Amino acid sequence: MHFSFLKQAxxxxxxxxxxxxxxxxxxxxxxxxxxxxxxxxxxxxxxxxRLQFGAQRLATALQAAGYxxxxxxxxxxxxKQGLIIVGMQGDELLKKANATYQLGxxxxxxxxxxxxxxxxxxxxxxxxxxxxxxxxxxLELADQVKEKKTLxxxxxxxxxxxxxxxxxxxxxxxxxxxxxxxxxEYPYTPEVFPWLYDKELWVKYLDMMVENxxxxxxLWNGHPFASLVRLKEYPYAVxxxxxxxxxxxxxxxFVTKExxxxxxxxxxxxYNIIVSKPFAEHHxxxxxxxxxxxxxxxxxxxxxxxxxxxxxxxxxGLMVALGEAMEGVGQDDVDWFxxxxxxxxxxxxxxxxxxxxxxxxLRAHDTDAQAVMxxxxxxxxxxxxxxxxxxxxxxxxxxxxxWAELHRNLSRxxxxxxxxxxxxxxxxxxxxxxxxxxxxxxxxxxxxxxxNGLHLYPQASYWDWPYTADKVAQRQLQVDRDWIWYxxxxxxxxxxxxxxxAEVNYWGNSIGEMYGCDEQAGKAILEAYEESGEISPxxxxxxxxxxxxxxTLTLGMLMGQLINPNRYGLFTLLYNSEAPEGEMIIEYAAxxxxxxxxxxxxxxxxxxxxxxxxxxxVAAIEKAAPSVTKNKEEFERLKNDMYCYDAMANFxxxxxxxxxxxxxxxxxxxxxxLELAVPPLQRSIEHFKKLVEHTQNAYLYANSMQTSQxxxxxxxxxxxxxxxxxxxxxxxxxxxxxRHNIDSLKAIKPSAQAKKLVVLKNxxxxxxxxxxxxxxIAPGQEVFADTTAQIKEFAxxxxxxxxxxxxxxxxxxxxxxxxxSTTKPVKVLVGYFEKKGSxxxxxxxxxxxxxANDFGQxxxxxxxxxxxxxxxxxxxxxxxxxxxxxxxxxxxxxxxxLGFIDGNQDxxxxxxxxxxGGEKKEIDWLFE
Length: 928
What we know:
This is Beta-hexosaminidase bacterial type N-terminal domain-containing protein. It comes from Hymenobacter cavernae. Keywords: Hydrolase. The chain is of the alpha/beta class. It contains 27 helices and 25 strands. The strands form five sheets. An eight-stranded parallel beta barrel has the order 7-8-9-10-11-12-13-14, surrounded by four helices. A six-stranded mixed sheet has the order 2-1-3-5-4-6, with helices on both faces. Strands 17, 20, 21, 22, 24 and 25 form a six-stranded mixed sheet that branches. 49% of the residues are buried.
């Protein structure tokens, strides 16, 4: 009896020991429970490269888990145990597998869908709707093996993506212009783009894409054709040497082949109308000129370039940007697309003897995409449209207004509308990983925009690809730093409506794996991402000037930009479409003064909210810090970003409060209101000093576009004003000026607002164009040669200027061209009528025209400066020219050439208030 008891005890101990050993082997790798088990992956004899790639990825995952694996290609299951059969719906292998293992009728799958089913004899069958579906089925099973370290005992799974296109983009572009070239003009060369020829980097990036189930890659460039194809009619158009041309052929072939086997469609984007530099020089024309009409020479060159590209790369798609480099919305867009671009593609297909149409994506930016598509669809069917989700920023997941209506109209054309998460000018350079914001944004793409595609820009440093702005010993890659950005958008493009509690768990585990911490610490890091992820969107949509990349949000804003945004070219779409209903600072102050109720999201509300978000982000990241055991240096950079967000939130909050207080003075005329603005303005600077402290040794720059297009808070000329330390003295000077001007007002000295009138003087120029005559700015003067409209009122500094008399009808029909010569630098004063719509020339706008500030013309100098007859008020802009012979070319539409002045003479920037219904009180001077 004692012996039986002892035997039983020993058996129990052995059982417990074996159980513990098994648990230990699973938890700590002391032994592998699947080691020695074998699996055979069977794919069809004529398997597509995608199936071969997917099978190999699955084999690698199984081998890492301890399985012995081989991959065979045959068209029948062979009746063995432990098979993993992979095929495409309807092929011979899958038919026989279904019959052998009695899997029943195949499920109907959408494009790229798949099923994974367990069968008898320990067999698994992966059935893809197409080659991509089979690939994704292999990847899904591989992911499960990686997570659980074993194959699932039983599985019945069906999955398919919601979005038809899920793509990322790479800008083959630079932070600054190349010498002698304009915007977007970057030939493909090893000197300009050394990374372009790095095959290892391409494989790394393409692997990231396929792991996240992206299926399209957009390459952005102004005019790539002259780097990739040679035309017998225009042999001089190639802009790279022979050795580089061969390198380009090889790398482009490599990238497209590697992408294709991962189920990724490469799309080459280009702008219109741009020609190569050698072509332009040969014909003595500009590489790009937004205002020139379509001419046969350029149309023929472009058509033949596209035909040669399609013939050489028939499996590569094209993305067409009709706007920006050619005149905006109009018949030219329709004609260029239907008479040049599509015929070019068709010519290439004819040369190939191919009828399958490569896809063409029409970018809706600065063009009437609906009109273009209406004309194009009868002659070409495989078309898509694309438009920006929140402009060139990330501001809201509740888009509305006219921008939402445009997207819905594009979606209802009958083709697929792609949502472009573009540039992200308000996010760079700090890390962004709010899974919640991303998920809600994709849901809005479906529910508000009715779209079914995603086109994702890098989270930051688009112009500096492949590197981040982080100041580290060896430049950091965007694909490494911003892993959660790519993973998040891809996850929700595949399926948007995932339950939130499960998503928090998912991201907690994913982030925990990244930083070697448990799920709870991972969730704390997620909280930091999501709290900080609300700050930049809220700040821009409530305080910003524009949704475009001319504003660098993280560098702050001037007081003048907060209290008088119209002076800086306010882009109203930011407020009426890309933000929840609410009020700008100037609207809020006006309602306060009038004692009117407020509507929606208000500036003080956002000030309070972003401060809370910043505080919670810092607390959450600090909570997670002790648990981090992996990627510690990157975690420290992420933690520093949370402190950056916190400092930025407090800077803006205090400055917005100061701005509201300053605007009270505009209505009260009480200097005490100004004095109450000093403390918050002082506090804003203290918070900005913290931002300087956290960024000075962490970042090389705030904005990756370092050209004159950058305007807010300061103009970015020659790479200046791209760091926080450069901006600190600007904000300190604002405070000094403000205090000084308050003292002047209190001492009852002559108001600094009373500026000494400086009359603008005519500069001697020789007008070479044939014009109708001239006029002098004075009451009663007629300003057009073919109308009787006369000057009624004007800003006093304009008196006596000599304007150029032109035909209004000719301007509307052909545009405006004035050729002149000068021996000294001059500024041309151009008057734009303050009305949108046909018949009037629209003022320069960097949101739609990348060349809109090439002559310093983007900003309004004097608003409401002139009244002519019953026409709308006139705003004055200036174009600067050096000594020499020049041609001022302007688009179609009526405008005024008000005169020429010395290039060194300043034109005061203010609102003259004519035609506004009353005198406008200017208070910007308080900070100047």
